[in-house]
Amino acid sequence: MDNLIDIKELTVEYTNIQNGIKTITRAVDNVSFSIREGEIYALAGESGCGKSTLSKAITKLVKPLSGEILFEGENIFTQSKEEQKNYPKNVQMIFQNPYSSLNPKMKIGEILKEPLDINTKYSNNRKQTIIKNILGDVGLTEKVLDLYPHEFSGGQRQRIAIARALILNPKFLIADEPVSALDASIQAQIINLLKDLKAQKNLTILFISHDLSVIRYLADRTGIMYFGKLVEENYTSAIFCRPKEDYTKLLLNSAPRLHL
Ligand SMILES: Nc1ncnc2c1ncn2[C@@H]1O[C@H](COP(=O)(O)OP(=O)(O)OP(=O)(O)O)[C@@H](O)[C@H]1O
Ligand SMILES: [Mg+2]
Q1: Going residue by residue through the chain (260 aa), what tens digit of pLDDT does each one get?
Q2: Which pTM value belongs to this model?
Q3: Does ligand 1 lie within 6 Å of residue 123's CB atom?
Q4: Residue 113, φ and ψ in degrees, nearest 5
């Protein structure tokens, strides 16, 4: 299996100046790992260990201090103009809070059409067909198109966010705590939806969660982060059955249970 993403010795720091005092936080510290085409790779670790920062570096929302990120073998920071243009189409993200990530002033139809308007020159008919198809893929109907985000439950909003993320047919999806704001029963539905979509669309997914029971159910391989470092990675079953690092054992012992 080929690697879709290679992360090499990646370090990301935040610099803040408050009352004239400069503080530097090393959120990601010399992290290296690869994500293979077609797999679900999970990143776990407690709050503040750098999971979101790592995913923001992959989506170019933050600039690393050092290291490299390769997408299909190409360094994402030194891509050609054409590759730079295509990168956001290939790499999409969904977030924890599906309400704040959807513009409350836009109808669902507009939310789903926007990425097509920005990134394609498709005819209106073709755009409508794509929107109809993606709604079907995430278990919604065309009835939602004229409604606003606040008219939906959290689970439905996350389905809409997933539809928007997948509308340009990306190769890679980053799901940053996509179910932690949802009720347990709804969590299971969204997790299963991601699993189905991954198989159906041959997606590669980076799944970020501090909930190990969800990761155990979903991920092919899992990396454990601690204070910005990747302390252990392995096939998910091996992480659960034969954890090597003390920190991984600690995390496993403190994991809440979700019944999927
Ligand atoms: N914009 C920022 N400015 C300064 N420090 C930041 C910024 N964003 C994150 N950090 C710090 O970087 C570290 C890593 O944060 P990050 O959000 O990546 O962690 P996380 O693993 O995603 O946590 P959580 O599970 O709570 O989402 C933390 O110490 C955090 O306080
Ligand atoms: Mg986070």
Answers
A1: 699 999 999 999 999 999 999 999 999 999 999 999 999 999 999 999 999 999 999 999 999 999 999 999 999 999 888 888 889 999 999 988 767 789 999 999 999 999 999 999 999 999 999 999 999 999 999 999 999 999 999 999 999 999 999 999 999 999 999 998 888 889 999 999 999 999 999 999 999 998 888 999 999 999 999 999 999 999 999 999 999 999 999 998 887 655 55
A2: 0.94
A3: no
A4: -80, -30
Q: Could you give the dihedral angle defined by the CA atoms of residues 118, 122, 123 and 124, in that order, rounded to the nearest 10 degrees?
A: -50
Separation between Cα atoms, residue 99 and residue 236, nearest integer Å = 30
**220: DSSP letter:** S
Report residue 153 as tokens. Answer: 């439950």
Architecture of domain 3-253: 3-Layer(aba) Sandwich (3.40)
Q: Whose CA is nearest to atom 14 of ligand 1?
A: 50
Residue nearest to atom 27 of ligand 1 (CA): 47
24 lines ligand 1 (CB under 6 A): no
Q: Tell me which residue of 20, 4, 9, 41 sits closest to 219, measured CA to CA.
A: 41
